[in-house]
Design brief:
Elements lengths: L9 H28 L13 H36 L7 H32 L1 H5 L1 H15 L3 H11 L1 H8 L3 H25 L1 H4 L4 H16 L3 H21 L9
Helix pairs in contact: 1-2, 2-3, 2-10, 3-8, 5-11, 6-8, 10-11
């Protein structure tokens, strides 16, 4: 099957790349604008927002950080369906795959908001937690670094780094099948990147510099040949930085 796959028309491929990059760029503009309007001293883990606003910002953040790294997978999906269309087989638009990918991350955002909401309440009710938020943030960063070395991280990263293998092993026809593939890929992506997203809570959910660093790391891990090695280097850096934060709270740029 792999030998029969051909890229879609150059115009279609360029359109997909352009749309992904434009959406990512627009999301970065929104995040930068939102960060300038936020009261960082009063945000807390939930950014001082209700569920709709938090999830809206979360989805925008996902588009900004994930879409550049997702381009190879989306293009491979379009490539496979272009071949099917040329053979007269049923065709499913690429946006179905992309939208279901975002659904999986949005559901994870709901979970993240629930945890953040509970954390905000606990911090407000506990003087110890209020006085040791930097310590907790440092622990989270260390745990994120250790997760970078875990078998789960490696398994999920391997799925994200091999678009063709993922599609060949997970292929399902039709709209429902396409939606399931996108959702399943989203789950692998969450399994790969959830810890990197969680460290944005102690670093600041609207800390544009931290988000840019996470986005760059995710892109490199998934797309460059030495991505697995880069993930391990990042693990060491996160562990060292987390330990510094634990003993030197001022090393944490933004905290509740």
């Amino acid at each position: 099957m792999a030998e029969k796959l051909t890229y879609p028309l150059v115009r279609e491929r360029n359109l997909i790349i352009t749309l992904l990059l434009v959406l990512a760029a627009a999301s970065w503009v929104i995040l930068i604008w939102q960060s300038t309007r936020s009261d960082k001293m009063a945000m807390g883990f939930t950014m001082g927002s209700g569920t709709p606003l938090f999830l809206g910002v979360w989805v925008v953040m996902m588009v900004a950080t994930m879409f550049p790294a997702e381009a190879p997978m989306v293009l491979m999906f379009a490539r496979v369906y272009a071949a099917k269309r040329e053979q007269g087989k049923p065709f499913v638009p690429t946006w179905i795959f992309v939208s279901s990918y975002l659904v999986s991350w949005s559901l994870f955002g709901v979970l993240a908001y629930g945890v953040a909401l509970v954390a905000d309440v606990m911090v407000m009710q506990s003087m110890w937690l209020m006085s040791n938020t930097s310590f907790i943030g440092g622990v989270l960063i260390v745990l994120a670094g250790l997760f970078q070395l875990s078998p789960l991280k490696n398994a999920c990263l391997s799925k994200c780094r091999s678009p063709l293998n993922f599609l060949l092993n997970s292929w399902r026809d039709g709209y429902v099948g396409c939606f399931r593939m996108g959702f399943e890929h989203g789950l692998f992506c969450i399994g790969c990147c959830w810890a990197l997203m969680i460290i944005l809570f102690p670093l600041g959910m609207l800390n544009v510099g931290a988000m840019a660093a996470v986005a760059l790391l995710i892109f490199v891990e998934k797309t460059v040949p030495i991505g697995n090695w880069i993930a391990k280097v990042a693990a060491a850096m996160l562990v060292v930085y987390g330990m510094l934060v634990i003993f030197v709270p001022g090393m944490l740029p933004t905290m509740v």
